[in-house]
Amino acid sequence: MKKTAITLLILVFGLFYLFSGIIKIIDVDNFLFLIRSYNIKQLIYLAPAIPIIEIVLGLMLVLRIRTKLGMLCSIILLIFFTIVFSLGHFLLNIDDCGCFGGIDFLKMSTPIFYLRNGLLIAGSIYLYDKLEKDRDSVQFIKFTFISVIIIVASLFLGVRANLDAYLTKTNYTRETINEYHDSLFVNRNINETLLSNYVSTSPDSSYLVFVFSYNCPHCIVSSFNLKEYKTDKIDKIVGITKGSRKEKRLYDKIINPEFSYKQIRFIEMRQITSLFPMSFYVENDTIRFKIKGALPKYNQFEELYFNE
Q1: Beta strand pairing status for 206-213 and 278-283?
Q2: What CA–CA distance (Å, rounded) separates 223 from 217?
Q3: With CB atoms 3.0 to 4.6 Å apart as the test, which of 49, 84, 207, 264 could cross-link to 268 if both were Cys?
């Protein structure tokens, strides 16, 4: 009975690491953006290796390859994750451990994180103590299987993970963001700006590009007001946003937006703005002006901007 319980516990640990690693690879942008918030350059270089390490560790435990060594690695990995999160939480107010990427319902509060990791560390120590020393040689087929998984995961990360974007500093600060928008967006052809990566326009039309976040209160107010904005002076409204799947579902349910919008990566949004909402009026493919903050009712908008 005790042996069965230990076997089952090892399997649970293995599946935990496999799931965690696979989710990080699938949602690598969310994971890299979180790592970037620690402001430690070396962590960005290390980040792509973390899901691969988790997957290898998970396979070692599930396939019972060097199980005692696997549990030792589990102890080290869990302590490392706990220390890094603690530094981020207490020094930088980071409250997302990023354990399971962007899956909303698996995100946990800080106390739950410490409780879970405490139990996992205790369980790893218990299993390491109970397991006998590894003696068996690794079967060729298992070694080959893990090697193939490492290669596939590495190739996938190589394609998806653009480390340069996360290592490059933003070209503005909160104090200089107005100057940043004025110099790189206003009175420029939209095709010369970052907006061209996400918005297609027509030279003989006018557009309002609405850059927003799902859960920003001013963005919510603006989204309701935008229902009045499709007029003879604004042919089309195009949205650019960032956020989680849960936030998107809630936004669509509450707002039922009458404009199309594109969801982009967090790091891409940082290259456009960190203030929300931020709107740009485009006429004849030229950005005529920007609107910082909540959009007013259309009659007020017309009076403020077009009558000027």
Answers
A1: antiparallel
A2: 10
A3: 264
Q: What is the pLDDT of residues 145-180, one digit of tens each?
A: 888 988 888 888 887 788 887 888 888 888 899 999
Q: In the block, which residue shows the tokens 């910082």? A: 292
Residue 30 has pLDDT above 90, yes or no: no
- Domain topology for 177-306: Glutaredoxin (3.40.30)
Q: Which residues contact 101 (CB under 8 A, 6 or more apart)?
A: 23, 24, 26, 27, 30, 31
**Tens digit of each residue's pLDDT (9 = 90 or more) over 244-264:** 888 899 999 999 999 999 999
Helix 110-130 / helix 2-26 crossing angle, nearest 10 deg:
130
Ordered by start, the domain boundaries in the chain are 2-167, 177-306
Q: Could you give the CA distance from residue 215 to residue 218 in angstroms, rounded to a whole number?
A: 9
Cβ within 8 Å of residue 253, ≥6 positions away: none
Q: How far is CA 67 from the centre of its chain?
A: 32
